[in-house]
Fold this sequence. Notes:
The structure holds 3 protein chains of 3 kinds.
Chain A: H1 4-9, H2 15-45, H3 51-54, H4 60-95, H5 100-114, H6 118-128, H7 135-161, H8 164-172, H9 177-192, H10 194-207, H11 219-229, H12 233-262, H13 272-280
Helix pairs in contact in A: 4-5, 4-7, 4-10, 4-11, 5-7, 6-7, 7-9, 7-10, 8-9, 10-12, 10-13, 11-12
Chain B: H1 2-6, H2 8-41, H3 45-59, H4 63-73, H5 85-115, H6 118-126, H7 131-161, H8 173-183, H9 188-225
Helix pairs in contact in B: 2-3, 2-5, 2-7, 2-8, 3-5, 4-5, 5-7, 6-7, 7-9, 8-9
Chain C: H1 13-24, H2 39-42, H3 63-71, E1 74-78, E2 81-82, E3 86-88, E4 95-96, H4 98-109, E5 117-121, H5 127-133, E6 138-139, H6 147-150, E7 153-162, E8 164-169, E9 185-189, H7 193-201, E10 206-210, H8 213-221, E11 227-231, H9 232-241, E12 246-248, E13 256-263, H10 267-283, H11 285-293
Parallel strand pairs in C: 1-5, 1-6, 9-10, 9-11
Antiparallel strand pairs in C: 2-3, 3-4, 7-13, 8-11, 8-12
Helix pairs in contact in C: 4-11
Amino acid sequence: xxxxxxxxxxxAPGPRARRLNAVLTVVGVLVIAAVVGWVVWKLEAAGQFxxxxxxxxxxxxxxxxxxxxWWETMKVALTAIALSIVLGAVLAAxxxxxxxxxxxxxxxxxxxxxxxxxxxxxxxFFYGARGQIPLFWCAVLGLTIYNGxxxxxxxxxxxxxxxxxxxxxxxxxxxxxxxxxxxxxxxxAVRSMLPSLVSQIVVILKDTALAYxxxxxxxxxxxxxxGSFYFNLIPAFIVIAVVxxxxxxxxxxxxxxxxxRMSTHTAARVTPQAATAQAGAxx
Amino acid sequence: xxxxxxxxxxxxxxAWGTIVLFFWSTLGSLVLGTxxxxxxxxxxxxxxxxxxxxxxxxxxTPLTLIMVFCVLCLxxxxxxxxxxxxxxxxxxxVLALVAYTSSFVCEAIRSGINTVPVxxxxxxxxxxxxxTKVLSLVVLxxxxxxxxxxxxxxxNALLKNTSVxxxxxxxxxxxAMRGLVEQNGNAVIAVLIGTTVxxxxxxxxxxxxxxxxxxxxxxxxxxxxx
Amino acid sequence: MRTIRSRHRVSALAGVATxxxxxxxxxxxxxxxxxxxxxxxxxxxxxxxxxxxASDVAITGSPTYDKITSAGKVVIGVKADQPGIGQKDxxxxxxxxxxxxxxKLMAAKLGLTPDQIEFVETVxxxxxxxxxxxxxxMVIASYTINDKRKEVVDFAGPYYVAGQDLLxxxxxxxxxxxxxxxxxxxxxxxxxxxxxRIRDEHPDATLVTFDAxxxxxxxxxxxxxxxxxxxxxxxxxxxxxxxxxLKVVGEPFSEEPYGIGLPKxxxxxRNTLNDAIEAAVSDGDWKKAYDFTLGGSGTDPEPPAVDRx
Lengths: 283, 226, 309
């Protein structure tokens, strides 16, 4: 119970403080309970708890189709993740290159790719190619370009945070600057920036839902169609929200494990603060 | 490019729609995000749990899902704000953007609090300030300074995220673009370029604003030190 | 520098557990009884009609037909979210609706059984690209024949003439036609012809737009809008689905001939399908298809005359 925040932001509570805390907790909880209760009451008033609205999701056929829709989302996400890691590494290499021209090109591309919304990038492929690019690839390419630019910045920050000695040691044993980057710096940058990289991957997964707006049949679209078909839109959205949140939490949990294993193999100081701050960049 | 000149008013109205959405969502998510951050560092385990659950739930849900839920499901629950349909849909969109963005704001402020040296809080407590004053007079003002850069990125993301409101009967840049593309089948690329440039301009304005704020806060701190 | 550190976060495992719980499930086999979405509820007659599959089909000079015979199947683009027209059951994955029956009818006249049809979901924006890319062999998806589209694809038909109409709540008698829309909130699909017509010809109505009619209907039943406007056939599908809640005004104010979209230049197939539509009208198959799907809305329209342009 002696977590440091307790001991720093406020006193170990005495009897009066404890009473006050208890009162505040009760008030806070009551207010929140009121909000939650109001939502539940609204749901009840609209008949959203009737079993018939939820029962479709207990059937095996529906679950199979739900899983198939989830897989469509995952296909977009996985392809986009793989491609944006490649693009990110290439752009990062460009930005860290010894050639000034290359650095400038890479910097321009990074700015260009991450300034417009992902949705607009998807529309670039959708409208720009006059429907000649399948929706799947419009979604994947839009996500790749946008997130590739963000991954490039994360990797660059990781490389720049490495002690100079790493690059110098590499150069001293006769590696070219390119070899130093790809075999010494980038692998360590990936390890030290893993938390930021993972939050970016979660961003990609969430942003696959934008493909719904350009008309691709993925999880969100399935949820909306199922909800319209069975007249249970709210339960349908709640079910797919649970699937999204669950998937993202599994990814984050896996990343934690990976992080613990990998963080020992980097010369960079792992700074969780920097990582959390970075995560916000990518909503 | 003629199509851009001919439709400057459509781009203008679209950009205005984006700005209005951005303004209200920024306001809302700063308030809700700060409140959540206070929850997450508060002495009460119950409030901390509420903050944690909220953040984990909304940070992991796609914004598009929240947006579509607000627009399609809130009317089913008879949750409405106004009779005017334009304002009604804007309110739904702002609600979705606020619900989503607050979780990121909360986390940025919380890590900002973490960057404030312990000595600051200790000193504040040593002179007898209670938790609320420690937080509001000493820790949060300093945390806000540390928070400006990540908050800038969050607002930048929010500016782009307003585009999702186009799926919710909100007229903003993306809706304006889609309308123009329908009407100008032969000038699609020009319309796309025009839209992209407008976003770049808005992002630059935001960037400049954050920069100004950052410098002002820096001056503030130096002043305080002197 | 010492910093204030936060407490541990609540384990993510709780969330994961919830997700798994939702996915695993207290399972029941198969699909639920349709809650009013499928063909059963929208149809007039209960048993699905069948169509005699032609056996002596000899078509020469049609690249599309050659592709169909060599593949052993026909790929048809249809709508997946329009009840009564073309709707996909989210459980079984089966399609149902008037367009679907028309597809089976056309396939039968080409000598193909329903098993030999592969349905592909199209949305309004990708019908032409699908035909141009060869993703589908034909499109039967509430596809209005017009001159702009004729420049890039060919049309057989029309097999149905729809008209823009209004869908309102069953207890709403204030909206009697397009001229009674002043001050009302009217929902349609963005960029569609019906939406443009409301904006241009009835500017005193408030236009609300979404990307699918199903969302508009949702807004109508939850009182967020007062009317939904598009082709009456589509509206009738929704009305048949929820007859107690919705009704079609029944004063169409435009003509939208639905055609079968084909790859540009395949005149042989176009003529074949035109013959097939005429045959279906005269031998009663057309009426069987209509009664089974849109017939539930209590209408009995005349089949249109084929337009061999």
